[in-house]
Sequence to fold (495 residues):
Amino acid sequence: MSSDAYDELTERYEKVVAVHDASGVLNWDQQTKMPSGGTPARSKQLSTLSSVGHDLLTDDQVGELLDELDGETLDGEEAAVVREIRRDYERAANVPEELVEELTETQSEAQPIWQQAKAEDDFDHFAPTLERLRDLHVERAEHVDPDVEPYVVMHEDSLPYIDIETVEGVFADLREALVPLIDDLKDANADLAAPFTEGEYPEDDQMALSERVLDMLNYDRDQGRLDLSPHPFTSGNQFDCRVTTRFKDDPIKGLMATIHEYGHASYNLGLPQEHFGSPLGLSLGSGVHESQSRFWENHVGRSRAFWELFLPEMQEHFPHLDGVSVDEAYEGANQLYPENLIRVEADELTYHMHIILRFETGREFVRGEIDVDEIPHVWNDRMDEYLGVVPETDTNGCLQDIHWTGRFAAFQGYTIGSVLAAQLDAAMREEVDGVDEKIRNGEFEPLLGWMRENVHQHGMRYPSDELIERATGEPLTAEYFIEYVEEKFGELYGV
Fold:
């Protein structure tokens, strides 16, 4: 092996990762702490960093080092490092630097425009920016691979090694199973308890509750923090990983958002520190990342065992809940809300109809099959078709997601993550005794330890599809998710 070439390649890539991490901190600041007037400067700062990172990654010397290493005998970790650096290099090398700068600057400028449009229910205010973002993303995709449909290139950015045919197959299985299941649950007319819809839930008290659940889950405050943002997100690496949340009148929504983001942070903080700056110290795409957040949110946070543990904490923070039983709390955390308009507040079942809607609408927009001014109409029609409810405002419709300002072809990662979470949960229960008992007792270390061993510690050593098969013993399948929700909601609703 040409060790000098390998060492130089990895040293160069460490700088690329450092620049990316610096951009992440600036993005976190923009969404949490930055004064609203700071956008012009922040856009330039982020644009400059994206240009620097692009230059470092696409430098001719990187290509020469990759060529030198081509055909060399590499061990498993070294081969993975070279594979992932080569993938990044090849996907960036043909993209002009000025396009990278323009796209980054436009994305940063788009955030306050989206926020204003959402606040004022004014899609027309955001539409020109959205159209410009689409055009820039398409232009970039055409540079990455002119022989592949732009939407597929964008999909590969978000879900590497999980091809779009696999996603479409999962979606087809979910449509076939979930649509009739949701109809059956609606028709059951079950009277589930809704204890959290009554009373006042001040934001400060909800924040204290979120802080408490993070403590119970052993979130390391020396390496993270909790803040508020317009849309919950996680940002960071294995040394510094920060989460945000937001609160509504229903405390379950904010609590579950916090647990969800903890799941993302658990993954980042579980990446091997000794490989910081290397692909071996980076997480896989959004599907695997979302599997971690959906596991902790749904398979832990919405479980009956969790509410046996956590209900006293809720009652301590909100004394008017003193008379609520564990069964009532469990039912309240798992209500179906088909009439809900907001994706991040959706229940476990109808959530995926929101995702399929975004997948289909986004793909048609990227392909040019619908114009930007048609999005509100198309969105509302699909809401009516899939969920039987139509938003009265674009604020609660097509303007609700900040993701329009960042990436296209990203939403499918949420459903793939949910499907994978159920598959991982099933595999974990084969190897870890008494998972529910451990949750009930607040013993989360064995669950986190299983994820550390089977997912986190590998970084990007294995492609997503291979990692899934190694962790669970079989390729990605919707089978476990469908079994999980049929059993859980069948019991809750008596069907």
User: Anything to note?
Assistant: The beta strands are 226-228, 234-236, 241-245.
